Each structure stands twice: as C-alpha cells, then as structure tokens.
Amino acid sequence: MSRFDLKKKADRILMTNFKYFFLMFLPYYILSIISGVTSRASFQITEVLNGNEQLTYNWGMLGSNLIFSIVSTLLITGIMFVCIDHIRNKAEYDKPFSHSVTIINNSKYFWGTIFIYILSYIMIYLWTLLLIIPGIIKSLSYSQALYIYRDAVDKGEKISYMDAITKSRQLMDGHKWEFFVMQLSFIGWFLLVLVTFGLASLYVIPYYNLTMANFYDSLLD
Known about the structure:
By secondary structure, the protein is mainly α. It is 83% helix and 0% strand. It has one domain. It is globular. The termini are close together. 27% of the residues are buried.
C-alpha cells in the first residue's frame, strides 16, 4: 500500500469510531497534561527557590515527571497493540478504557515493552556515539520490534527481546526510507498540535498510531 492509502485507511477507521478512540486515548491525554503542567510549575517554582531547597525540589519533580513519562509510554504502547487489531479488523469497538490499560492486563506485554525499550535505547545510544546518522538508521531498524514481540506473544511463540529487535532489523531491510518519510509526513500534524495548544492531538495521536500500525501490517504482507 502507498503512504496515502495507509493514512487513508487509518483516517477512515478513526473517524468512523472517533468516540471510542477518544475514550481509549483519554488516560494517555490526561497523563500527558499532568506531566506538562508539573514541568511548567517546576520551572516557575525553582525561580524563587535557592540552594538546598531548590536542589531537593528539582530532584522531587524530576522523579515525578519520570514516573508520569514511563506510565504514559507504557499506556501508549498497549494502545499501539490494540491499534494493530483494529487495522486487522480483529477487535471490537467497545470497552475503550479496558483497552487503554492493555499493557497492564498482560504481563508479557508489560515486561517485553520495558526490556525492548531498554535494549533498543542502549544499542541506539552506542551507535550514536560513533556518529549521529548510524544511530538514526538503527532507530529506524528497531522501530517494529514491539509489534513483532506482541504478535509472537499472541501466537504463543517463544521469542526473546533480542530476537524481536533482530527480526525488526530484518523486516525493515529496504523499508527504512519509507518509514522515515512516513514519519516526516506527520511533522505538519504535530505542528498543528502545538499551535492548537494540544487540542488537535485528539485527532492526531490516534491517527498517527493507527497509521504506524498499518505500516507494520503492510510490511508483513
């Protein structure tokens, strides 16, 4: 499928079931807002604190923001997995809040997501130490690892975290440029999110995740 067709299918699914996707992504939106508000408050308060008070407060806020960031990342990953099922017409458009916490309801999803993120980050960081370009290329190569791991878990297949990353690299062979261009095609949408103070994210975030799930599914085909 062309990039246009991939995005068109994602848009059609989203607009046909917009209320469902809004509710499914709602916990993620709320966490993102809380994280943004606490970060802004932290910046304003530290301006009036000095010495040890400021240092203690900064560490406390850093810990809170890190927790919000980790939880929101886990939530959005679980929602990504649900988006694959919708792309494949294998999921009902009901129980959106249950789908929001998919990552928590499945321990294999949960730990797989954490360890694949950690391993991918370490390897991409090491490649980046050589040069920026190799790091970018590897980030594109490893981009499908979570989807691959998720499919293996659902099929009852045994797969290690490193195997998922390796299979992603193999799957993306010859498709990295396509994926890179697909990512670039959303720059305008994310700028729209900024100028609308986040309001456009109600459409853009589900649209983006459905498109990425569709891209992965098209690679398998």
